[in-house]
Prior knowledge:
heterodimer, A: mainly alpha, Cytochrome C Oxidase, Chain A, 18 helices, 2 strands, B: mainly alpha, 0% strand
Amino acid sequence: MTSVAEAPAVRSSGVLASLFSTDHKRIALNLLAVSFFWFLLDGVFALLMRTELARPGMQLMSEDTYNQLFTEHGSGMIFLFVTPLALAIGLYFVPLQIGAAEIAGPRFALGGFWLIVAGGLTMDSGWFTAHGAAKAGWTAFYPLSGAQRSPGLGMDLWIIGVVLATVGAIVLAACILSTLLRLRAPSMTLLRMPVFCWTEVATCLMVLASFPVLVVAMVLLYYDRHFGGVFDTQGGPVAYQHLFWFYGHPVVYVMFFPFVGIVAEVVAVFSRRRFFGYSAMVLSLLAFAGLSMSVWAHHMFATGRVTNQYFSLTSTSLAVPGGIEYFDLVATMIGGAILLRTPMLFALGFILQFLIGGLTGIILGSPPIDYHLTDTFFVVGHMHYVLFAGSIFGFFAGAYYWWPKVFGCFLGEGLGKLQFALMVIGTNLTFFPMHILGYDGMPRRIANYSKHAGWTGLNELSTAGSYVIALSMLVFGWNVWRSMRKRVAAGPDPWEGHTLEWATSSPPPRHNFDSLPPIRSYAPLYDLRQGES
Amino acid sequence: MSRGPVVVFAWAAWITGLTAVLVVWRPEDEIQWLPFAAMSAVIWVLGLAFYVRRRLRSEVRLIPDLSPGTAVLTLGLATMLGAPALGIWVALVGGGVALFGLAVLARELLTERRLNR
């Protein structure tokens, strides 16, 4: 056992104290709570939109309100929920998995958290202004987001909110990457880092490379709205799209990689096997992250102003590293003693459903097909299979897997399985029909459609599915409440985990470890158990 | 000594390669490859920054468990950013809050320096 430096004795407790804490675990939990709040708020927006779309005609709201709802839903989910969530999980578990006592730059991490909170509040404060919240979509395409078509404070506040939340994410990513590259335990070499840590390396590199471009785009958009002369020129709107998608495509992988990492950990632990093809996985993650930086203009095929061949080639190439990752995940399970506990069920849900999102992505990477499907509900279906059916299932796999570590008690297994069943039904009922609707020509971002279009049945199905998803979230809430009241104690390593976070108490102490076991591979606790047997 | 910077340099090389292919494919379309090339440069610089500070830090530095100064300073700066949309008074309020946060943070840092000496 390697001894770790002695921790300072000062401890603090209380809600206010937790908001100022420099402990990476506390900051991460606060960020998780805040991002989950925005998930619920923006989920309610989604339910309102789906209710409106269930039938042709306007039932619930005006078209203007609908525009504000889909803008805030998309923005909130991307800038304030999934991105912060992906970083919060890294903030909590990266130091634990590499045997570090703290995060690099704890004060910066705390500042990053507060920037995201301030960004969210600024963005949503647009609802209380005279013209209402922003209504140009989460992409804020120009000229729709210009002063003429989006007058009022709501759009300005949205831009400022995006800048704040994005800078917050950049700061957090810098802290996590520095931790991974500089604060590893003495025998934790790069190629002994767990797969989840490598997914965070790829994620943070993408954040640091692409997010500053969004900040630049937003500053220019703000300037253009007030002084003009930036995007209201020949080719200006296309230039805006280049800047936006330069951020907008990598962010999809930022919102996906950490959840692949979680699923990889869960699959290995619940298959009772060492993760298969570790080196190939690490290489494919870095190659995947690099390629994902080079595909942004496939969102712009229909503009006719981009090099379609290049962007189609790089987009289709993503299937290669993606395929390697899938192969590794499936090969880990082959020959394993699979335990179908709730985390594993969510991991399997991720693997199967994300495949649909990935395959429809390849379809959209082909320019001739994209011309037919661009700006239709097909794209909405594809995106939600990646981000909801993929990432959110990955998140819940992690939530059920790491809950005992974070809180020292289990989440209910029965309620977990019920939540999983409801989520699978709800997700596929909501998002699968969108592919058919899109293929049939139903445009995205519309509040109304003709009753003669033949889209009513599929829209009703989709709306019913969204309420099933809402029900599954209530089950999760009930499970959390019940587990915190009943508290079935978990102990330090209830799942026989492979990685270092299971070598410390649950929940971990302020400086994470009293001592570390020997680290000889990316699965040190698995090695230890194998050695003992 | 950490080998961490190698990861960043390898990734920078991969991105530079992809940029080069785009430049060769359509050299006349700067709007496409210029931001990509700029980003490749940023990653090289990032790798260099990690290389310069590549020594692993093994000891735990004593820092306070709480840092209200950081939170107040961040919120003050964030409020100031609202000034272009909401008016000069927001900048003044945000500036005041940020100054107060800065003072608290300075006090924290002085205490920390004393503890670590």
